[in-house]
Amino acid sequence: MPKAKRRRFSAKYKRRILNEYEACNEPGEKGALLRREGLYSSHITTWRCQRERNEMDGLKSKKRGPNKDSQASEIVRLRQENKRLRRRLEQAELIIDVQKKVSQILGLPETKTREEN
Prior knowledge:
The protein is rod-shaped and about 110 Å long. The termini are far apart. It is mostly helical. Helices cover about 65% and strands about 0% of the residues. It contains five helices and no strands.
């Protein structure tokens, strides 16, 4: 037998049901509404309390899971860029060292770099 899934109700649905429930005046109307919608009286009680306390968030559907943190994603991006740039710097320094050694072996005069100017 498959496991039953928990139902989630939108804020709009909850408000509509509360309004319909409170508009019921005839005997048995409220029970018929609950049966038709597949609800329990505890749903109505909980939703009323939330509405009376002005907990509109309590009536809204809540997203589950961790919050997206824009700063965290920016930090990850910057760290990746930093890593990439460090690798490029290491390669450039290696190339310069090789060029200096080749220059010394061939006896070519040393050229000044930007930093030395």
